[in-house]
Design the sequence.
């Protein structure tokens, strides 16, 4: 029998016997039940005190349900304590790991209040923990670009990182990325990219300066070779092909230098004014005319499909440079007599320039690298065609300036398709001109 029932039964029997001896069994039973209630109340108060004081109060040692309850509570407390210790250990390891990172880390809630930050956050951003715990990020940082990026990232729409100067040191460059996690928390990571930017700037300066220095001697050499070539009657027959070869190689060097200078300007100079309205149909028609001249000996068939009255807000010269490089690439790598498709059309997200050639195509492992400068899929074939290896790199930089995207798809033997995806906010739709009667 359960101890509680045995205890209750014993008290009732004893109370009944005592009441019978006293001449009133009912009063005896009531007195026994009162004793049970008082005892149960005392045990409940003891449990309440045990719950409030925790380990400072020992649990009641009474057989029955009360004892089982206190044992379960003690067991739950022990497990919770163990879990708490494990969580504290994990939190300590997390803090040690983030403190060891070379990047600044700031943890914030959905309202942008700082929950935690490592030491690098104080060094790079001036956010110190626990000093700034609970402070809003917007109250601690005053840089407009970073605050705008924080607002966009807080909405979950930021896909790219932000590069800024450190609020504490203008000579330190930081790459900021804000990530939303757990639906209601934000993680800011700021990496020091000062040395990387300095090395890139040195590389850009070297390429720009070297290109400028090479431009003049190559131009002089080209001029003399042209003068010599014009005097073909006075040249020995053996020298005529040699002069032509030197002229071709000099022309190739001039094209390379011009492309290097163009790419250097795109990387070094601030973006040009990008609010001019550019008629893309007219621009592509001019590029096609130039491409037909370039491919005259190969009899390429151009198949344009250009949607009129679909203009772009941007820089005419930059867009001409990007689109012409894409079309001229198609001319260089399309077999003689084959088709080159040029399409300009509206999409659900903006507009698209699509250039498709009928060449040998690009293997899948090379597609992600063809926009790198000087990268060549077939080095020998590229030199034979006279390419500089910079055309797609220039196109990619122009697309980035115009908030657009460059997409390349290809299969070996099936040709290559290059797409320039222009976003909606760059488009200008013009009205059709009234017809003359």
Sequence:
């Amino acid at each position: 029998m359960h101890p509680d029932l045995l205890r209750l039964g014993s008290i009732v029997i004893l109370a009944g016997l005592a009441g019978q001896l006293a001449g009133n069994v009912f009063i005896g039973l009531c007195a026994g039940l009162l004793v049970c209630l008082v005892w149960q109340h005392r045990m409940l108060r003891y449990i309440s005190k045990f719950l409030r004081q925790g380990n400072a109060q020992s649990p009641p040692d009474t057989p029955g349900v009360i004892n089982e309850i206190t044992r379960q509570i003690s067991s739950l407390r022990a497990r919770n304590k163990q879990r708490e210790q494990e969580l504290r250990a994990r939190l300590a390891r997390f803090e040690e790991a983030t403190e060891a990172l070379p990047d600044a880390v700031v943890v914030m809630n959905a309202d942008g209040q700082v929950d935690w930050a490592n030491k690098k956050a104080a060094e790079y951003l001036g956010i110190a923990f626990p000093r700034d715990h609970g402070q809003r990020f917007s109250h601690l940082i005053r840089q407009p670009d970073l605050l705008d990026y924080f607002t966009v990232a807080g909405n979950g729409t930021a896909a790219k990182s932000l590069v800024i100067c450190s609020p504490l040191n203008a000579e330190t460059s930081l790459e900021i990325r804000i990530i939303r996690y757990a639906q209601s928390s934000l993680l800011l990571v700021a990496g020091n990219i000062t040395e990387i930017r300095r090395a890139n700037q040195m590389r850009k300066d070297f390429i720009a300066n070297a290109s400028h220095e090479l431009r003049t001697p190559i131009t002089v050499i080209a001029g003399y070779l042209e003068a010599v070539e014009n005097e073909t009657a006075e040249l020995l027959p053996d020298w005529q092909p040699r002069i032509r070869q030197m002229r071709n190689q000099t022309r190739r060097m001039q094209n390379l230098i011009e492309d290097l200078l163009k790419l250097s300007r795109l990387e070094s100079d601030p973006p040009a004014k990008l609010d001019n309205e550019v008629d893309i149909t007219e621009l592509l028609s001019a590029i096609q005319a130039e491409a037909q001249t370039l491919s005259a000996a190969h009899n390429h068939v151009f198949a344009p499909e250009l949607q009129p009255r679909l203009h772009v807000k941007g820089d005419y010269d930059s867009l001409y440079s990007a689109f012409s490089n894409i079309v001229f690439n198609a001319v260089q790598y399309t077999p003689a007599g084959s088709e080159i498709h040029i399409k300009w059309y509206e999409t659900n997200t903006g507009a698209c320039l699509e250039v498709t050639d009928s060449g040998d195509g690009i293997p899948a492992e090379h597609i992600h690298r063809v926009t790198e400068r000087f990268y060549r899929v077939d080095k020998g074939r590229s030199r034979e065609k006279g390419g500089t290896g910079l055309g797609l790199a220039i196109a990619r930089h122009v697309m980035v300036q115009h908030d657009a995207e460059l997409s390349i798809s290809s299969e070996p033997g099936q040709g290559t398709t290059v797409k320039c995806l222009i976003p909606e906010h760059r488009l200008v739709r013009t009205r059709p001109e009234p017809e003359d009667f």
